[in-house]
Amino acid sequence: MNRKKPSKKANIQTSRIEYLTVGQTARILGISPSTLRLWENVGLINPARSTGKYRLYSSELLEVLKRIKYLRDVKKLSVPGIKQMLGKKLKPPIPGPNGDAQIEIGAKLRQMRQRLQLGIVEAAAQAKISPGFLSAIELAKANPSVATLQRLAATYNTTVLEFFSIPRHARRLIAPHQRRVLKTESGVCIELLSIGTKMLECMIFRVPPKAGSDGSYSHAGEEFIYMLQGELEIWLDEWECHTLKSGDSFWFESNLGHRWFNPSKQEAVLIWVNTPITF
After folding, report:
1. How far apart, in whole angstroms, are the C-alpha atoms of residue 189 and residue 121?
2. Does domain 6-86 have CATH number 1.10.1660.10?
3. Where are the domains of the chain?
4. How far is CA 73 from CA 30, 210, 249, in A?
């Protein structure tokens, strides 16, 4: 009689960070387990191992795998090309009209962590990422997704707005060329529409085809979205799924875990408002 291997499930449940098995990860990505092993063999990924030597995939590694799949299927890159793209830096914010030099996101994250006197291991555990990945982000050798940036901001008791290097003084009028911009290597572009507001975060999101948040996140407050162009698929608590199209408006409670993705072949452009300032 065949018996189940109990150690595999036990190791996953007792780990501080939730892990997925090879089969679970392959089903989420829509690829075969052999493809995952191939990507490991060529050096694209390095999954954790249980005491029984089973491969384990964290949520952070899942984000990397989604990026690899996108680069392979959409960008049609080879393994060397994928390695090169994964190693590129996160693009810093575009300098504002005052010409001040912007601090790279990695350096800013390191300053925030050190200000709270958190070690790499402790900070990474709170943000639910690996210490190695956090170190790579701080050294600008890895690209954090929007979801990862939000979790790191929450860990450091701040918001993603801090990454925009916002001027100290408020501005009632902001011309398009004065907007602070945050752009990731995957192409997601966030433009800040308000500076100095007390209760509102107003942004324009530009999401390229087949790009998204690369993970779920949650925080306090409420959110409102108005679609200007394209489509956006948004999941709430992995239970509700809504596809927003041009002209649609949508709101939800921010404490619901939310992730989003552009399933179309056209750039999605949307106005995204958070209240209070907790993103």
Report:
1. 29
2. yes
3. 6-86, 105-275
4. 12, 10, 31
Q: What confidence tens digit (pLDDT) does each residue in 183-209 have?
A: 776 788 888 898 877 788 899 999 999
- pLDDT tens string 95-115: 443 333 233 678 888 888 999
Q: How far apart are the first and last CA of the chain?
A: 53
For the segment 245-255, what is each residue's pLDDT rounded down to a tens digit?
999 999 999 99
Surface-to-core class of residue 122, CB atoms within 10 Å of its CB (0-12 exposed, 13-18 middle, 19+ buried): middle
> Rounded CA gap, 203 and 213, in Å?
15
Looking at domain 105-275, its CATH architecture is Sandwich (2.60)
Q: Are 234 and 259 in contact (CB under 8 A)?
A: yes
Q: Residue 242 phi/psi, 5° resolution?
A: -125, 135
Q: Enumerate residues 6+ apart whose C-beta is below 8 A from 165.
A: 93, 96, 100, 102, 103, 180
Question: CA angle, corner 277, sides to 236 and 101, nearest 5?
Answer: 115
The 3-state secondary structure of the chain, one letter per residue: CCCCCHHHHHHHHHCCCCEECHHHHHHHHCCCHHHHHHHHHCCCCCCEECCCCCEEEEHHHHHHHHHHHHHHHCCCCCHHHHHHHHCCCCCCCCCCCCCCCCCCHHHHHHHHHHHCCCCHHHHHHHHCCCHHHHHHHHCCCCCCCHHHHHHHHHHCCCCHHHHHCCCCCCECCCCHHHCCEEECCCCCEEEECCECCCCCEEEEEEECCCCECCCCECCCCEEEEEEEECEEEEEECCCEEEEEECCCEEEEECCCCEEEECCCCCCEEEEEEEECCCC
**Residue tagged 């239970």 (tokens):** 239
User: How many of the other CB atoms lie within 10 Å of CB of 219?
Assistant: 19
Chain centroid to Cα 235, Å, comes to 14
